[in-house]
Design goal:
The chain has 166 residues and is mainly β. The chain is built from no helices and 14 strands. It has one domain. A hairpin with an 8-residue loop joins strand 4 and strand 5. The radius of gyration is 15 Å and the shape is globular. The two termini are 28 Å apart. Keywords: Signal.
Amino acid sequence: MFISSITLAALGLIGSASALATRDAPDVNEEFGLYAYGDSIGGLSLFYAEVTRASASSSSSWIANPNVTTTNANYSWSDEMLYVPSSSSSSHEMGFTSKKMTNETTTGFIFYGQWVMVENDSGDISSSFYIRSSSAGEGIYSLVWNVTDDDTVIPISLRSAKPSNA
């Protein structure tokens, strides 16, 4: 069963962001991974997929597909759109969806170099990404958006750059 919220795994990837090589944003239609960086978080990988963007425009969605690392894997999802909750949503959970709902924003994702940002309809750009420990197990985190009133979240930067030890 596919869980729509995004999770991150602590895979011993604690490191320094200064050790990363400089890199431009992925090209249109190029597959890329997304990694979380923050205080004591040196590149946690999202478990989900490789992502592609159909255009450099913020009006297009970012599409994810399973990151197939084993030939015996049986994935029940594909071509899911990355989303952040809309301002009208009561949830802060980010995720992937095959059908955009009214409380999900599936467009507006842009790169500033290798950093992921979100551009809203009025042109404001923000990077309000956070992680929260998940009940799925130790070292598993949920990716959340725009949380300002929760002491249990950790602010992160979401980037396309793999950690130096990956």
